[in-house]
Amino acid sequence: MTVLCLVELDASGVADASLRALSFAHGLAAGTGVAAVVFAPADQVPGDVLASYGATEAHVAEPGRVPGYAPQAWARALAGLAGQDGASAVVAAATDRGNEVLAHLGAITGLPMAANCLSAEPGDGGAHQIVRQRWAGLLLEDARLDGSPALMTLATEAMQGVALAEPAALTVHLCQPTLAEDDLRVRATESAGHSSGVSLATARVVVGGGRGVGGPDGFAPLEELAGLLGGVVGVSRVVTSEGWRPHRQQVGQTGTRITPEVYLACGISGAIQHMAGAAGAKHIVAVNTDPGAPILSHADYAVVGDLREVIPALVAALRDRSSA
Amino acid sequence: MEILVCVKRVPMVGGKIVLTPDGQDVETRMSGFTISPHEECAVEEAVQITERLGGTVSVLTLGPPAAADQLRDALALGAGRAVLLETDGREWGPIATAAAIVAEVRRRAEAGDGYDLVLCGNEAADTGDYQVGVRVAHALGWPCVTAIKSLEITGGGDGGGGSVARAGREYRGTEESFEFGLPAVVAVKEGINLPRYPSLPGRLRAKRAAIERHEPAWQEEGLRKEALRVPETERKQATVLGTGADAVPALLRVLDEWGVLP
Questions:
Q1: B12 and chain A: CB distance < 8 Å anywhere?
Q2: Per the structure, how many domains does chain A have?
Q3: Nearest CA to CA, how far is A35 from chain B (Å)?
Q4: Which of A188, B25, B148, B254 could form a disulfide with B167 if both were Cys (CB 3.0 to 4.6 A apart)?
Q5: Within 13 A of A265's CA, how many CA atoms are on the CB side?
Q6: Are the Cβ atoms of B222 and A310 closer than 8 angstroms?
Q7: Is the ipTM of this complex over 0.85?
Q8: A219 with A240, same domain?
Q9: Whether A113 contacts A104, CB under 8 Å
Q10: For the whole model, what pTM was predicted?
């Protein structure tokens, strides 16, 4: 009984989230083999990376068969492979695409799908004992997932991807899925627009601004500081719902989940929905006028004071330092 | 354009989440309830579309009788019709929820006033299942897109037939877009718009509005909750580096130690 793993590629090769999903699949398969499923031209599939994260097989669906991202077609291909391989589980990273494709697979097969899993153990009768996130990780759910194959997406914070000391021997198959008529009705067109610089999700430094910034005009010093540190500005929900900053800068349950070395949270009280998005930060420093703000129980260090005084002083000190 | 918006009543959680003693649910005796955030935006989007193209927004929720409050919230924002799929308060899974929504869509079509568009939130704030809309779309044979942050509908005559939707979302820092014909299911994310505040006349209208009620049957699903837990997090208490601008040298030392200074 193999475990199928949907693998997404990005500019670096296999996306980090998919490396973690491969490691999750490897643990779940317990030696019975992991089959990676990749939608890309065969010459762009990094077989060595797949093998070192435990894949024993790779099913490659080339664009001639499945052109680009078409969620229902990707799910149809997975359904075919799951049947053909007698898979015990089909897993994917809990990205927009991973959740979407597995939801389609659940709908096609009539099987239950568990999103944002943290762990899974095969149990009796093909069932899995799982732990999954609710409330974006603020709560955990212990659950039993009955369904063969078990459909699961892996939460971002669940685990690290682990390269094996001994890479598996990988067999590559070109996959020729049989699609239904409607499967290509919805297909993505990527815009020519390129991402400018550092993204919020992957920045090493995030300078956060909350209600304490005071209004749309208060962000210039934060932007300047982020620029000096090679980072980006992130904001709390109140800032976007007031229309001070665009929603794409929001950190939190309904915004972006960040994973920086340092999160410098300025004028942010620390509501749990916001902290759910900052749980991946390695270090947190809070700048807040209120020494009793909840953010202080999530932070390593705090500066008690008005960010409108502290941040310009920090910017000036950094400028002095670089000109010295 | 006939639009059905599906919303969920979820507890308003503040500083922390507290569970009931049996560990099965979030303790809500002390908290209020709200519409799950992505779905507030779905309501706003539906109202904006009908303001441009005409038609009616129907808002639907599946939940206990008290979920009528969330329907009235949506009515106050501009929805014209409300449907409560009434439950006994038990938690419903995504498969049964989707089936109950599909039954409503079919009822409406049989009454000769079928929906052109079903809008939902990308995932509910509490259960985060990410799949109800997709399952509804498959059952109806309609196209479906999720995680949508921009939506434009063009063309088509009365009733939305022949209309084309263009929906966009973020993908690794760029935008990807999808084009498809209606009827369709679209799951949206917060950020697609900025929901308005209800007007006073809107609130008054909502208070008086009739709510259509149905009682779908609960079904057990393959994903079964056993218990909820609050994750154990490391309780920290920040070390205060200092007060105001005087703390800057200490702050620089810490940032330098962490290796993030240029």
A1: no
A2: 2
A3: 24
A4: B148
A5: 37
A6: no
A7: yes
A8: yes
A9: no
A10: 0.92
